[in-house]
Amino acid sequence: MDALGAVVCRMAQRSDLAALLTLIPQIERDPLADGAQVPSLAHAEAIFDQLARHGNVFILVATVAADMDLAATCTMTISPSLSHGGRPLATIETVVVATWRRGQGIGKQLLAYAFAHAREAGCYKVQLITCGRPDQIGFYRSAGFSWEGVGFKAYL
Ligand SMILES: CC(C)(COP(=O)(O)OP(=O)(O)OC[C@H]1O[C@@H](n2cnc3c(N)ncnc32)[C@H](O)[C@@H]1OP(=O)(O)O)[C@@H](O)C(=O)NCCC(=O)NCCS
After folding, report:
1. Strands 89-97 and 126-127, how do they pair?
2. Would you give the distance in Å from CA 151 to the centre of its chain?
3. In the structure, which protein residues have their CB atom closer than 6 angstroms to any atom of ligand 1?
4. Contact indicator for 44, 36 with CB cutoff of 8 Å
5. Alpha carbon of 113 to ligand 1 centroid (Å)
6. pLDDT of 93-145, one tens digit each?
7. Contact 64, 101 (CB under 8 A)
8. Which of 22, 59, 74, 156 is deepest in the core (most CB within 10 A)?
9. How far is 136 from 69, CA to CA, in rounded Å?
């Protein structure tokens, strides 16, 4: 493993999409799993343009100076809310660090960047659902989340 250069966290640009489509499948240990499937580049570009029009879904990325490829990504949605005095809430999904960059503090830095963005947007909380593997729980606790409530999902 090489030395970790400067980590830069920023919003993804359209030109990051090809790299994102390589990074996102690394969320799964099994490359054939459903979550490892990504759209075509053309479809991803259409989705990116749609997100840009919506203006409340942000794809965040981290880069390491030494790397050509992206080191990490997550997606954060800022949802308007009628509760909590009308303050929005942030939901984070698709958190993935490149396999060769795990355990180097990059995921934590990216989530700190996401938290800062959510604070700036006036959000009253940031939430996410994890499948609950011990590594994920350790990571999210360290990143500032506490384990609260029970998550529900219905796949469609
Ligand atoms: C989970 C994941 C995002 C963590 O990212 P990472 O960059 O490797 O984590 P970091 O190096 O930033 O670690 C930050 C903290 O989390 C802890 N952590 C990271 N991986 C851990 C593990 N496998 N077990 C326990 N704790 C772990 C670290 O010890 C560190 O704690 P500290 O800062 O208090 O010392 C990354 O391993 C990953 O992409 N995994 C596959 C995809 C995935 O599971 N995504 C989450 C979907 S919900």
Report:
1. parallel
2. 18
3. 27, 95-97, 102-108, 130, 135-136, 138-139, 142
4. no
5. 15
6. 999 999 999 999 999 999 999 999 999 999 999 999 998 888 899 999 999 99
7. yes
8. 74
9. 23
